[in-house]
Amino acid sequence: MPATGAKPQGATTEADAAQAVRQMFDSIAPRYDLLNHVLSANIDRLWWRRTAHRFRPILADPNAAVLDICCGTGDMTMALLKLRPRNSQPIFAADFARAMLTRGTLKFGAESRGADKPYAIPLEADALHLPLKDASLDLVVTAFGFRNLANYESGLREFHRVLKPGGRLGILEFSEPGGRLGKAYAVYFRRVLPTIGRLVYGKQGPYNYLPTSVDNFPPPPQMLALMQSTGFAQCTWKAYTFGIAGLYTAARSPVV
């Protein structure tokens, strides 16, 4: 049966799941960046840059309307801002975990120094209920946040709603590599990573949730099918770093 959305331990409804995810990320916000960089050996920085460069033609347009949803502490936002020209429209950087968004604002807020420099507008918002008009965005990007949505199909439909016809979608997410590498990575991901996370963070739950959330997330063929079923076209997936992560891309079909 296809996975419908994130399922934190103890959550029985979509509302419970969303609340549990929000509380979890609010609680780990102070050490989130440190753990991300340590646990990924800084490869996560490469993934954000590659994702941003995938959409460089859109980002180069100063009039393009861009949303980084589930922006967390703003690393994906920063990668996007680096490719924005001067005097361009600001990027919307949205997350529903206030503590994460607050820390992100400290990063990309510095980009607003200088009247003509590209900058981001923080937006506290739920990815399933975006406070944005229909067909108002040229690009929606999310990095390592989509799998935490309480309902994947609803999230895709909401992204489709706010994108203009022909607008692009990018979803950077973890995956599970196959073969011998996959077996070795599984040991690290399910045993070593939660242990390091617990030692640094001081609690067990959040970094046990990470491998569980990846296990529950649809594999690429299923995710691509879900994207197509929600109205997206040109759906693709590109593996990053032997399939540890990957970028899903799609377009909202133009009106004929």
Describe the structure in your own words.
By secondary structure, the protein is of the alpha/beta class. The protein has one domain: Vaccinia Virus protein VP39 (Rossmann fold, 3-Layer(aba) Sandwich), CATH 3.40.50. The protein is 46% helix and 20% strand. The chain has 9 helices and 7 strands; from the N terminus they run H-H-H-E-H-E-H-E-E-H-E-H-H-H-E-E. It has a 7-stranded mixed sheet, sandwiched between helices. Strand 6 and strand 7 form a beta hairpin. Helix 1 packs across helix 5 and helix 1 crosses helix 7. The longest helix is centred in the N-terminal third of the chain and has 27 residues. The chain is globular. The mean pLDDT is 89.
Keywords:
256 residues; alpha/beta; 7-stranded mixed sheet
What does the secondary structure layout of this molecule look like, with pairings?
Layout: H1 14-40, H2 43-54, H3 56-59, E1 66-69, H4 75-81, E2 91-95, H5 98-108, E3 120-124, E4 137-143, H6 152-162, E5 163-174, H7 179-201, H8 205-216, H9 220-229, E6 232-240, E7 245-252
Parallel strand pairs: 1-2, 1-4, 2-3, 4-5
Antiparallel strand pairs: 5-7, 6-7
Summarize the structure.
The protein has 256 residues and is of the alpha/beta class. 46% of the residues lie in helices and 20% in strands.
The number of domains? 1
Count of alpha and pi helical runs: 9
* Arithmetic mean pLDDT: 89
CATH architecture: 3-Layer(aba) Sandwich
Q: CATH superfamily name? A: Vaccinia Virus protein VP39
Instruction: Tell me how many strands there are.
Output: 7
Structural class: alpha/beta
Q: Note the run of SSEs as H and E.
A: HHHEHEHEEHEHHHEE
Unreliable sequence segments? none
Shape descriptor reads globular
Helicity level, as a percent range?
40-55%
- CATH classification class: Alpha Beta
Distance between the termini: 34 Å
